[in-house]
Design goal:
Radius of gyration: 20 Å
Number of domains: 1
Number of strands: 8
Strand content: 5-15%
Largest sheet: 2 strands, antiparallel
Length: 314
């Protein structure tokens, strides 16, 4: 048994300690360059999104490639933001966890209806494996990471959490909150992309099935369960196995929460405008209410959490 102790003020970023051979100024310059790269990707995403939202409002038709470009810019932003905030190892771990679990549950859903309900993907999203477009698991990484970044805007203070069960009691509400943040986004996305106007996928449900604009309510329950599982598994691996050689078990040692918050708001605007043009008034109301509630709660968490130091005892 041993104590693992990490103090945020002693990290290379906070002190300028040279662990790279760049010198102190090089450490800060390297981190600054990465952060500006993330800002740049977010700016590009915002500009492309504004062009698409403008098309919805003013009724002009963007090239089809624009929609794919928007999705890939968002993916690159999420990867860049994740690399900046949690480092290469944790980014790979989160990417692998979300991609594998995401692909697995999508295959089950598309072929058996398990968890979400029965649906079928169209051809618009490209090549498919076992009925699931190869790009779909990437969506899970994007939204789960963004929700994670908002719920854990800085290191979580587990000093007074006690043993393992105490840590679980501390982290579980945050994991569930992050899962709710992902579901809140899906309230807007699923009714939009499964509509006849978009047709990315088609739900196979009876008229008597409880639903929201053609999407079975079981889908949102499934999203909550899967998102919570992804976050829980990632945090378990992050705390248990990653960074032991440095004595660091921080979840986000270099916070850049503002960019994730902006991305989340932009996704809300996009989904709201798109559903409004489809006549999905209830979807817009539920989606905005859920996403704004999640956003405001995470803002309050960021203000009140005493996260400057994390001590885990094993």
């Amino acid at each position: 048994m041993k104590n693992l102790r990490f103090e945020e003020r002693n990290s290379p970023l906070m002190t300028g300690t040279d662990t790279t051979g760049l010198g102190k100024s090089g450490v800060f310059a390297s981190q600054s360059g990465k952060k500006w790269a993330v800002h740049g990707l977010l700016l590009i995403f915002g500009l492309v999104l504004a062009y698409i939202v403008g098309a919805l409002i003013f009724n002009y038709q963007p090239p089809v490639a624009t929609f794919f470009g928007l999705s890939f810019v968002l993916l690159f932003f999420a990867i860049g933001q994740c690399l900046y905030e949690v480092g290469v190892t944790r980014t790979i771990v989160l990417f692998v966890i979300t991609a594998i679990i995401g692909f697995g549950v999508e295959v089950l859903g598309a072929n058996t209806g398990f968890l979400f309900g029965k649906y079928t993907y169209g051809d618009f999203l490209g090549d498919k494996v076992l009925g699931v477009p190869v790009v779909v698991p990437l969506v899970w990484f994007v939204i789960v990471f963004i929700a994670f970044g908002l719920v854990f805007p800085r290191t979580t203070n587990l000093t007074s959490a006690g043993g393992s069960w105490g840590k679980i009691r501390t982290l579980l509400p945050l994991i569930l909150l992050g899962a709710f943040g992902a579901v809140a986004w899906d309230f807007l996305i699923d009714p939009m992309f499964s509509s006849t106007q978009y047709g990315y996928w088609t739900w196979q449900i009876s008229p008597s099935t409880p639903q929201l604009s053609g999407v079975p309510l079981t889908n949102f329950v499934g999203w909550f369960v899967v998102s919570a599982a992804m976050l829980g598994i990632y945090i378990f691996f992050s705390l248990k196995f990653i960074g032991r050689d440095r004595g660091s078990v921080n979840l986000i040692p270099r916070p850049n929460t503002a960019d994730s918050r902006i991305a989340y708001v932009l996704l809300m605007i996009d989904g709201s405008v798109a559903n409004a043009t489809l006549g999905h008034a209830l979807v817009v109301m539920i989606g905005i209410t859920a996403m704004c509630s999640f956003f405001l709660v995470t803002i309050q968490l960021g203000r009140t959490r005493q996260g400057t130091k994390q001590i885990l005892q094993e």
